[in-house]
Predict the structure.
Amino acid sequence: MAKNLKMKAARAALDLSQDELAKKVKVTRQTISAVESGDYNPTINLCIDICRALGKTLDELFWEEGKK
Amino acid sequence: MAKNLKMKAARAALDLSQDELAKKVKVTRQTISAVESGDYNPTINLCIDICRALGKTLDELFWEEGKK
DNA sequence: GAAAAATGTCAAGTATATTTTACAAAAAAT
DNA sequence: ATTTTTTGTAAAATATACTTGACATTTTTC
Protein backbone atom coordinates (compact mmCIF):
# COMPACT_ATOMS: atom_id res chain seq x y z
CA MET A 1 0.00 0.00 0.00
CA ALA A 2 0.99 3.60 -0.47
CA LYS A 3 1.98 5.97 2.28
CA ASN A 4 -0.71 8.31 3.49
CA LEU A 5 1.04 11.59 2.83
CA LYS A 6 -2.17 13.59 3.05
CA MET A 7 -2.55 12.52 6.64
CA LYS A 8 1.08 13.21 7.39
CA ALA A 9 0.74 16.69 5.89
CA ALA A 10 -2.45 17.46 7.81
CA ARG A 11 -0.76 16.41 11.04
CA ALA A 12 2.30 18.52 10.25
CA ALA A 13 0.06 21.51 9.51
CA LEU A 14 -1.21 21.35 13.10
CA ASP A 15 2.30 20.75 14.45
CA LEU A 16 1.31 17.50 16.10
CA SER A 17 3.65 14.58 16.71
CA GLN A 18 2.42 11.05 16.05
CA ASP A 19 2.31 10.57 19.80
CA GLU A 20 0.19 13.67 20.38
CA LEU A 21 -2.25 12.65 17.66
CA ALA A 22 -2.35 9.13 19.08
CA LYS A 23 -3.37 10.48 22.46
CA LYS A 24 -6.10 12.66 20.97
CA VAL A 25 -7.46 9.69 19.09
CA LYS A 26 -6.81 7.24 21.93
CA VAL A 27 -4.74 4.70 20.11
CA THR A 28 -1.05 3.94 20.36
CA ARG A 29 1.66 5.82 18.52
CA GLN A 30 2.43 2.64 16.61
CA THR A 31 -1.06 2.54 15.22
CA ILE A 32 -0.79 6.11 13.96
CA SER A 33 2.61 5.32 12.50
CA ALA A 34 1.23 2.26 10.74
CA VAL A 35 -1.71 4.16 9.28
CA GLU A 36 0.63 6.81 7.89
CA SER A 37 2.97 4.14 6.56
CA GLY A 38 0.02 2.75 4.63
CA ASP A 39 0.74 -0.90 5.29
CA TYR A 40 -2.47 -1.13 7.20
CA ASN A 41 -6.23 -1.41 6.91
CA PRO A 42 -7.56 0.62 9.83
CA THR A 43 -11.18 0.58 10.92
CA ILE A 44 -13.41 3.38 9.71
CA ASN A 45 -14.06 4.63 13.22
CA LEU A 46 -10.34 5.15 13.69
CA CYS A 47 -10.17 6.96 10.34
CA ILE A 48 -13.08 9.16 11.36
CA ASP A 49 -11.46 9.96 14.71
CA ILE A 50 -8.21 10.87 12.95
CA CYS A 51 -10.11 13.09 10.51
CA ARG A 52 -11.89 14.91 13.31
CA ALA A 53 -8.62 15.40 15.21
CA LEU A 54 -7.01 16.85 12.11
CA GLY A 55 -9.94 18.91 10.89
CA LYS A 56 -10.34 16.99 7.66
CA THR A 57 -12.94 14.69 6.10
CA LEU A 58 -12.64 11.07 5.01
CA ASP A 59 -12.42 12.04 1.36
CA GLU A 60 -9.63 14.49 2.12
CA LEU A 61 -7.47 11.97 3.95
CA PHE A 62 -8.48 8.48 2.83
CA TRP A 63 -10.07 8.68 -0.60
CA GLU A 64 -8.05 8.23 -3.77
CA GLU A 65 -9.84 9.32 -6.89
CA GLY A 66 -10.07 6.87 -9.75
CA LYS A 67 -7.70 4.38 -8.18
CA LYS A 68 -8.46 0.80 -9.25
CA MET B 1 -24.55 2.98 16.46
CA ALA B 2 -26.90 4.37 13.85
CA LYS B 3 -28.08 2.58 10.74
CA ASN B 4 -26.32 3.49 7.54
CA LEU B 5 -29.31 4.64 5.53
CA LYS B 6 -27.19 6.44 2.97
CA MET B 7 -25.60 3.17 2.01
CA LYS B 8 -28.93 1.40 1.95
CA ALA B 9 -30.34 4.11 -0.31
CA ALA B 10 -27.35 4.00 -2.67
CA ARG B 11 -27.70 0.25 -2.96
CA ALA B 12 -31.43 0.52 -3.58
CA ALA B 13 -30.79 3.14 -6.27
CA LEU B 14 -28.79 0.55 -8.18
CA ASP B 15 -31.37 -2.16 -7.48
CA LEU B 16 -28.81 -4.39 -5.82
CA SER B 17 -29.60 -6.92 -3.10
CA GLN B 18 -27.27 -7.23 -0.12
CA ASP B 19 -26.13 -10.51 -1.58
CA GLU B 20 -25.32 -9.02 -4.98
CA LEU B 21 -23.39 -6.17 -3.40
CA ALA B 22 -21.60 -8.65 -1.18
CA LYS B 23 -20.42 -10.59 -4.22
CA LYS B 24 -19.19 -7.46 -5.97
CA VAL B 25 -17.25 -6.47 -2.89
CA LYS B 26 -16.21 -10.03 -2.08
CA VAL B 27 -17.47 -10.26 1.45
CA THR B 28 -20.40 -12.18 2.85
CA ARG B 29 -23.98 -11.00 2.85
CA GLN B 30 -23.86 -10.95 6.64
CA THR B 31 -21.05 -8.43 6.55
CA ILE B 32 -22.99 -6.12 4.24
CA SER B 33 -26.04 -6.51 6.45
CA ALA B 34 -24.01 -5.66 9.54
CA VAL B 35 -22.47 -2.57 7.94
CA GLU B 36 -25.91 -1.29 6.97
CA SER B 37 -27.26 -2.11 10.40
CA GLY B 38 -24.54 0.10 11.81
CA ASP B 39 -23.60 -2.17 14.68
CA TYR B 40 -20.18 -2.58 13.15
CA ASN B 41 -16.83 -0.95 12.64
CA PRO B 42 -15.74 -2.08 9.18
CA THR B 43 -12.24 -1.60 7.84
CA ILE B 44 -11.63 1.34 5.54
CA ASN B 45 -10.72 -0.90 2.63
CA LEU B 46 -14.12 -2.52 2.85
CA CYS B 47 -15.77 0.90 3.01
CA ILE B 48 -13.80 2.00 -0.04
CA ASP B 49 -14.78 -1.14 -1.95
CA ILE B 50 -18.42 -0.58 -1.06
CA CYS B 51 -18.19 3.05 -2.19
CA ARG B 52 -16.67 2.07 -5.53
CA ALA B 53 -19.33 -0.61 -6.06
CA LEU B 54 -22.06 1.92 -5.37
CA GLY B 55 -20.53 4.86 -7.22
CA LYS B 56 -20.17 7.01 -4.13
CA THR B 57 -17.34 8.45 -2.06
CA LEU B 58 -16.43 7.89 1.58
CA ASP B 59 -17.88 11.24 2.59
CA GLU B 60 -21.14 10.44 0.84
CA LEU B 61 -21.65 7.10 2.59
CA PHE B 62 -19.63 7.13 5.81
CA TRP B 63 -19.12 10.72 6.94
CA GLU B 64 -21.48 12.44 9.34
CA GLU B 65 -21.07 16.16 9.51
CA GLY B 66 -20.61 17.72 12.89
CA LYS B 67 -21.34 14.55 14.80
CA LYS B 68 -19.35 14.55 18.05
C1' DG C 1 -52.44 -16.52 0.14
C1' DA C 2 -48.59 -19.43 -1.14
C1' DA C 3 -43.77 -19.50 -2.95
C1' DA C 4 -39.58 -17.26 -3.59
C1' DA C 5 -36.35 -13.84 -2.61
C1' DA C 6 -34.40 -10.72 0.63
C1' DT C 7 -33.13 -9.49 5.16
C1' DG C 8 -32.04 -9.95 10.49
C1' DT C 9 -29.56 -12.39 13.52
C1' DC C 10 -26.88 -15.87 16.15
C1' DA C 11 -23.00 -19.03 17.53
C1' DA C 12 -18.46 -20.79 16.60
C1' DG C 13 -14.37 -20.32 13.99
C1' DT C 14 -10.57 -17.74 11.46
C1' DA C 15 -8.11 -13.59 10.01
C1' DT C 16 -6.36 -9.44 11.20
C1' DA C 17 -6.49 -4.71 13.65
C1' DT C 18 -4.58 -2.83 17.77
C1' DT C 19 -1.86 -3.06 22.10
C1' DT C 20 2.20 -3.68 24.83
C1' DT C 21 7.02 -3.67 25.42
C1' DA C 22 11.13 -2.71 23.49
C1' DC C 23 15.12 -1.13 20.69
C1' DA C 24 17.42 1.49 16.97
C1' DA C 25 17.70 5.30 13.81
C1' DA C 26 16.58 10.05 12.34
C1' DA C 27 15.45 14.69 13.27
C1' DA C 28 15.23 18.69 16.22
C1' DA C 29 16.85 21.43 20.07
C1' DT C 30 20.26 23.30 23.07
C1' DA D 1 28.43 17.45 19.34
C1' DT D 2 25.38 15.92 22.78
C1' DT D 3 20.83 15.49 24.47
C1' DT D 4 15.97 15.08 23.67
C1' DT D 5 12.21 14.24 20.85
C1' DT D 6 10.30 11.92 17.09
C1' DT D 7 9.81 8.14 14.15
C1' DG D 8 10.33 3.12 12.09
C1' DT D 9 9.81 -1.30 13.15
C1' DA D 10 9.30 -6.00 15.34
C1' DA D 11 7.47 -9.96 18.27
C1' DA D 12 3.92 -11.65 21.26
C1' DA D 13 -0.65 -10.95 23.25
C1' DT D 14 -5.43 -9.30 22.99
C1' DA D 15 -9.58 -7.40 20.79
C1' DT D 16 -12.45 -7.50 17.19
C1' DA D 17 -13.61 -7.70 11.98
C1' DC D 18 -15.17 -11.10 8.97
C1' DT D 19 -16.58 -15.94 7.63
C1' DT D 20 -19.37 -20.08 7.64
C1' DG D 21 -23.59 -22.36 8.29
C1' DA D 22 -28.02 -22.08 9.73
C1' DC D 23 -32.76 -20.67 10.93
C1' DA D 24 -36.62 -17.12 11.50
C1' DT D 25 -38.91 -13.13 9.76
C1' DT D 26 -40.07 -9.85 6.37
C1' DT D 27 -40.83 -8.41 1.77
C1' DT D 28 -41.74 -9.31 -2.99
C1' DT D 29 -43.84 -11.77 -6.73
C1' DC D 30 -47.14 -14.66 -8.92
In short: The first helix of chain B runs from residue 5 to 13. The interface with chain A takes residues 41-45, 47-48, 51-52, 57-59, 62-63, 68 of chain B (CB under 8 Å). Helices of chain B lie at 5-13, 18-25, 29-37, 44-54, 58-62. DSSP finds five helices and no strands in chain B.
